[in-house]
Amino acid sequence: MRTRQLQSLLRNTKRNLVEFKELGGYSEIYKYSIENNTEFWEKLARSRLDWKEDFTQVSNSCFKNGSISWFADGKLNVFDNCVTRHLPDRADQPALIYEKDEPGTEEFVSYAQLHSLVNRFANVLKSKGVKKGDRVAIYYPVSPLGVAAMLACAKIGAVHSVVFAGFSADALRQRIIDADCRVVICADGTYRGGRYINLKSVVDQAIENLDLVETVLVGTRNPEAQKLTTGKDVDLDQALESASDNCESEPMNAEDPLFLLYTSGSTGKPKGLVHSQAGYLLYAAVTTSAVFDCQPGDRFGCVADIGWITGHTYTVYGPLVNGAVSLLFESVPSYPDPGRYWATVEKYNLTQFYGAPTAYRSLLRHSNEFIEKYDRSSLKRIGSVGEPINTEAWEWLHHTVGSSKVRIADTWWQTETGGNMITPVPCDEGAAFKPGSAQRPFYGIEPVLKSADGKTVEGNSVDGALCIAKPWPGIARTIHGDHERFRNVYLNVFDDVYTTGDGAHRDVDGEYTITGRMDDVINVSGHRLGTAEVEDCLAQLEFISEAAVVGIPEETKGEVPYAFIILKEGVIDSSEHKLLASQHVAKVIAKFAVPQDTIIVDGLPKTRSGKIMRRILRKLAASSVQTFAEIAPELGDISTLAEPEVVEEIFLKKCQS
Ligand code: WT7
């Protein structure tokens, strides 16, 4: 049975990495990519990208020194690679399918139209004083104008910083200030599940009394909305209409920054990770084609928002650089009913579908009718990203959605890595089906496992901190404005390797299963959140003296934050405080960061040196037992705590709440 399944998969897909096909299959190409790493990437850089000036250096990278550089003396333009060079073959082919919230209201944008739109957009940016190297904030939902905003920056060498249009005004303001953006691009709003969400009012709040921002370019989503509200606002649609569509693309150095993208860490403020022009684009190009078998003209359905790295790499750059048609999905999986994804697959004959386990888990509870009534036979590949995928969701994707024919790509990677790192690659052969396991390193990627004392864990059937031994073109180069932090967080944890922050198990076959974060970062519906960020935010409230936040498992979202707070002396314990705390987190960070519950306690379990024992809080938060005696054995030795008795007190408070 299994062999038959594999044979049918083989027939359905083409071999990838044609450059190396004479070497054989995955194992041979992988071996070559590690042993001849520079030659491997050099060949791909020449065959996959168009250069304005050829490079002579391939890699000059050293994790120890904190310097990473690929193809450094080459010049290219990312927009030309993603759009202009496809015009001779596919000017009239759609580049983007805009599947708007309301079914049946879709729009298509051809490569020729996208080319003209981006040229005009680039001229608008220039007319507002944006130059090569300037940072531009984009607070735009997934849409042709959002994508065009990114590409217009790429065209003129400005550095885009897309802020997910679900982040709060405070979070947006913090990111605008950190990246020093003088121009903000936004839409009046967006629709999600039939509901209009006003985005412009968030931008207005974010830039209130912020002299730094000179111009806000506002695009139209809802023609009825009042979108021009301040003296800084410019009507983007009008500006685009009157702009010329003639614009020279800026030849960019391979190592110039292409974009910043903020992500949470276990401590401190969000980090603006900086991705490069050439290395990032190459990695996006090669992973999109090899992991997803993406061919020119394929209809690639990555439903991630452009506010996340998945949207950058697999909604925008990866599909376009490969000449595919990219789906822009504005809606939610359940609107108007739980068949929306599969209706969309049928409507456009999508060849790839790439989504998140949290959405898959929410859909699999509904009747199979919502799947079976649509034709999904166009799909070659279904991807999953953002968090570990549980076996039930994997089986459902493969058997129910994919009719036992479609290979599932569980893709492990991070904002920092630029593209897929561990995933059953490629689509053409070999790897056994292993639900819940990301399995194999991508070409050129060499995972190593480290033990707590920094030793490399050898052999199979072992666990360790997941690290990557060799630099690869797609890795982020630095944290905007804080290279020391970049080195400390990623490159100096263990010697000579990139530290991912995740743990992994290497199984008997030498393949990898990700076991989850090893730091205080939690993953809420695929959104990364530092528990310290939520704690800092809660501690800002004048009635809170201390807060501890942990992540606990949740069926659909994967994990949710859970808070314990100590009120300041003299403050009377009331449920209003919980409500105020939730509202404050939503305002300062985002709705997804609001704790599932907030327990008011008198003390926190701390070591004698004052470190909060989150392990204990996690157990308490996640448990559903009724008596302390039942949970006590799970808590381990608590006698070394400064005040062991607080643990039972917290348990009782939780039961009462
Ligand atoms: C963290 C990165 C990569 C784009 C989306 C999230 C977790 C991601 C998987 C997976 C297990 C996964 C890791 C990682 N993660 N994909 N397939 N299996 N865990 O990007 O916000 O940078 O988060 O998400 O913990 O470190 P991100």
TrEMBL record:
List the protein's name. Answer: Acetyl-coenzyme A synthetase
Database matches in SUPFAM superfamilies: Acetyl-CoA synthetase-like (SSF56801)
As its record notes, the protein acts as a catalyst of: acetate + ATP + CoA = acetyl-CoA + AMP + diphosphate; propanoate + ATP + CoA = propanoyl-CoA + AMP + diphosphate
Could you tell me the keywords of this UniProt record?
ATP-binding, Ligase, Lipid metabolism, Nucleotide-binding
Broad EC category: ligase
Question: Which InterPro entries does the record associate with it?
Answer: Ac_CoA_lig, ACAS_N, AMP-bd_C, AMP-bd_C_sf, AMP-binding_CS, AMP-dep_synth/lig_dom, ANL_N_sf
A molecular function (GO) term: acetate-CoA ligase activity
What does the record give as EC number? 6.2.1.1
Q: Which residues form the AMP-dependent synthetase/ligase domain?
A: 89-472
Organism name: Oikopleura dioica
One GO cellular component term: mitochondrion
BP GO terms, sorted: acetyl-CoA biosynthetic process from acetate; lipid metabolic process
According to the record, the signal peptide region is: none
